[in-house]
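User: Hello! I'm new to structural biology and keep hearing that structure can be predicted from sequence alone. Could you demonstrate with WD repeat-containing protein 76? Please show me the input and the output so I can see what each looks like.

Assistant: Of course. The first part below is the input, the amino acid sequence of WD repeat-containing protein 76. The second part is the output, the predicted structure written as tokens.
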Amino acid sequence: DGNSHLSAYERKRLKNITENAKFFAALKLHESAARLNQLTTKRQSRVTKRAKPKKVEDEPARRRSMRLLREPPLDVPLLDTFTRPEAEEYPQVPGGPLPMVPEDQAKSSKWTEALLSTWRRISEVKAEGAERGTPDIKRYQESLRSMVLREENIRKVVKSRVCSMAIHPSESTILVAAGDKLGHVGLWNVSCGTEEGAHTFIPHNFHVNCMHFSPCNPAHLLSLSNDTLRCGDVTRAVFDEICRGEENLSCFDFLDENACTVIVSRWDGPVAVVDRRTPGVSSELSVDIGFRRTRTVHVHPVNKQYFLAAGSTDVCVFDVRYLRKTKENKPLSSLTGHTKSVASAYFSPVTGSRVVTVCADDLLRHNNNTGRWLTRFRAIWDPKQERCFVVGSMAQPRQIEVFQDTGKLLHSFHNVDCLGSVCSINVLHPSQSILVGGNSSGRLHVF
């Protein structure tokens, strides 16, 4: 039928779309609307007296708020928004620890063991890191221009749309992790250079909204989905469960250098503090910060008690020490000016004296309107440069753009032969000139 290359889920979804189109065509809505307009016109021409007031039952139903109806916002990635895959094909991931075994495998293969062994080995070597925050913009631009994309550095790592990524800090091996909208986590050893360098795991049921390698132990990969926060510990080859929510977790960040405590945000507004050292999978504190929606949280790089929260049109700084359940939690500072929904907000990497936000109002004269089929853009600071950040673009040819904090465009990463899609999610290596872009089909591009 010409669709043999599609997965079972994609074929079922295509079938549903086709059947729905036939159903609406059978209703002949356009013909009915035309006849109704003709009748209305004739009736209005005959009416000479004042129209009677409408009855209460004839009035159209008022539009109800999705928030009051407790419906998820459009950008909350629930599989139920579309056709949910069959349970037999996508079984639910159980709670508790899960073995680090790839999808469709009863046990790890030799190639998987090689990948995990590489991850363990490079995590034992402490990365020295390059000097950060250099003010030499010209030298920085030269390093950007030297970065290229080759065909061998493109790989489909996860099955579906990339929602988050993380890159290992190793200076000898390029190891990238990607999370997609089906709850899959893919690991790719780019330096391997063979087909066996990428493997996919299923530690989650829903979109993997956020991922970070632990800042103190890169043998740990933390990933957050709508309902759970897990830690992939490669030394034990297991995905531990740290926190379980109510299918509305959106983002997390570390509150200390030891990565023992994290701040977690929820799609419906509140934030929670989770201590990894305590038993159980519940949070230590959950509070309302006055947001109708919270998409991202980010901790200040120097003063760890401060965190930045981004929501509908809100971007605020809070002090975690003064969060209380019993009273209104007011922000220390509010960054006003956005008129539409804010997708993300992050402190600059060295001093935290700047904040970069992405909003649907295109304030940088930058097309951020991705629509519902692409992951929303997130502008991220380059950890090697205090004043520059990277963000995806809707421009043609497809590209990833680097801006200075003044709004000046410094460089555009593009390759008409190798990059033909929008990279909504990007990640930069903390010390090397490496950029990874992820697209809506699960493909990663490494410059």
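User: So the tokens describe the shape?

Assistant: Right, they're a compact way of writing down the 3D structure. Reading them back into a model, for example: The chain has one domain: 98-125+138-446.
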